[in-house]
Amino acid sequence: MDWMKVTVLTTTIASDLVSQMLIDAGSSGTVIEDKNDVQLNQRPEGQWDIIDEEIARKIGDDVKVTGFYPMDDRASDAIAGIREKARNLHLIAPGVDLGKLTVSTSTIDDEDWAESWKSQYKPFRLGKHIVIRPGWEAYEAKEGDKVVTIDPGMAFGTGTHETTGMCVSLVEEYMKLGMTAMDIGTGTGILAIAAAHMGASRVLASDIDPMAVRVAKENIEINGFSNVIEAVEGNLLEVCKEKADIVIANIIADVIIAISAPVREFVKPGGVFICSGIAREREDEVIKALTDAGYGKLDKRNMGEWTAIACMRD
To answer: What is the pTM of this model?
Structure first.
């Protein structure tokens, strides 16, 4: 089967919004190519280089968000809908720098579709110890490395985004041997696996998307943590019946604001809620929601256009 590849040029801050737009139009997943992801993960916290700087040069200045659609009788309607949504995106996100929002299309066959998104995805470091390695790439671990092997399944995040990097750094800092954790919206399972690497005795990883849960389960098994991490489909507030030392949510500001109070009931006294995916201009709103919900000792991190926060339940 031939596939239609649809690419939208945008900005770092708007990439998740454009990604969701393409998914809503029928793509099973998206690929985000952002040279800022490469540069920000290149030398985290004084560590050695992993990613070739040539990758960033090839990506260019515009952030490219790509979706894939079957070339059938619905293809023309899909592309028309995407163009229309792109023209009206400023109404959904007033004041956000959306970039060019240029929409381009091309046709590729099955083999090219399966391989085209892999070319930019190389091993890279998150935090001090975690190294993300796609399953098709070799990596020689250095002393202290904890390697996470990931098959993103083309859909749920490769881990290169700043929000994931900040979450991993916070997990490395707050996770202690024997603690328990929950990962809300686990996607590929990167954060759940990172928590297990850092000593978690049990991790509950949840996602409302059944395909994400399937991909997460595969990655959990590949990394040898099936006895530690349980991936389940559903809303955390519905599927969880116990408390954890650390709850992680790398989602978006609106969801974090909405769940900050109810999630507190799943954090053990003295435990930590780590939340990320917060655009900088929304961090004050999120901090207010967390404070109003009764969290204390806010530990805030910034990277690029994004904010991550670790807060403690008293």
So the answer is: 0.66
User: How many residues belong to the chain?
Assistant: 314
Q: What does the domain layout of the chain look like in residue ranges? A: 2-120, 155-313
Higher pLDDT, 159 or 119: 119
CA distance 52 to 41: 11
Instruction: Tell the CATH topology of 155-313.
Output: Rossmann fold (3.40.50)
Amino acid at 123: P
Contacts (Cβ under 8 Å, ≥6 apart) of 264: 273, 293, 294, 295, 313
Mean pLDDT of 123-145: 81
pLDDT (tens digit, 9 = 90+) per residue, 54-65? 434 443 578 999
Decide: 164 and 187 in contact? Cβ < 8 Å: no
Distance of alpha carbon 221 from alpha carbon 235, whole angstroms: 22
d(C-alpha 295, C-alpha 271), whole Å: 10
Query: What integer pLDDT is reported at residue 44 of this predicted model?
Result: 41
Percent of the chain with pLDDT over 70: 83
Query: Under CATH, which architecture does the 2-120 domain have?
Result: 2-Layer Sandwich (3.30)
Distance CA 246, CA 179 (A): 8
Rounded Cα gap, residues 1 and 306, in angstroms: 39
User: What 3-state class would DSSP assign to 225?
Assistant: coil
